[in-house]
């Protein structure tokens, strides 16, 4: 079928809304009418080249929610009319990673940036000129319709607003899990959240819910620091340089048991400063993405050893998509997880460049594209 989508044709150029054609569902695939898409910083990394796809043009978007319109052969977990969230990491439930409890490292994720559908290794999205289109993590939520493998979708309760549901496909479980799973925040611990955008705000809530004693939010944008207090931060700082002496005083020199780094872009030169506010035996969780083409890191290896600190990477916050996405939404329904206030602004698809500029300008915790009948 023909629809439209936000495409990137080269690095450091704006998103372009173009007509595209998507294939029909094949075995184990479902077709979804999209209702909402989250505007995550990772899609901006596509524009800068920080996340290199296998080719151009690229169809962006990896957070989203919608309604199942059609199912392919062999699909048993979904029916037409089901409400679903797209998980940017598929979860097959059968590979060694899934079976060992690390569904966020599912083997099906190995080819997510190659553009070829996992069901038959073909390009399923094309431009009107017949060009192959590379969808972000084999999703491409910046389009009103999608055809995806059933392993990349999670059925949800129909009472959940679509704009809320969209964010649990990436940002919410990534941040929340960075604190609760990868960071394993325990009651009474002191925690620092470095960067309080969408992922950072979810990490902040995860630390608060886990019973952290002090939760320090560090972000250069004053408005974001003000918002962080509403989500449970106990004190905020504009920079690591400002935070370090104050944290030392508040914690009597022990520093933070857990430091969760959720900045928009990780630079190797900053790693040692984050480790500097991490306590002896503590853990610094790197959730934000660095450029895949960069490998230089500044780190005092002697202090890493002598103070027995841990530097922990995480993807998707260590989440199990099929388990954690419904669980997080149930917490939202019970008023335990505040997602509504994380949605700062909603945009039309043709406003996508403005939405990302607002993100870069520090105006949004999370922007959401909301599709309408005009899009469908």
From TrEMBL:
Its EC number is 1.1.1.1. GO terms for biological process: formaldehyde catabolic process. It comes from the Bacteria. Gene3D superfamilies: Medium-chain alcohol dehydrogenases, catalytic domain (3.90.180.10), NAD(P)-binding Rossmann-like Domain (3.40.50.720). It catalyses: a secondary alcohol + NAD(+) = a ketone + NADH + H(+); a primary alcohol + NAD(+) = an aldehyde + NADH + H(+). InterPro entries: ADH-like_C, ADH-like_N, ADH_Zn_actinomycetes, ADH_Zn_CS, GroES-like_sf, NAD(P)-bd_dom_sf. It is an enzyme of class 1 (oxidoreductase). Belongs to the zinc-containing alcohol dehydrogenase family. This is alcohol dehydrogenase. The lineage of its organism: Bacteria, Bacillati, Actinomycetota, Actinomycetes, Mycobacteriales.
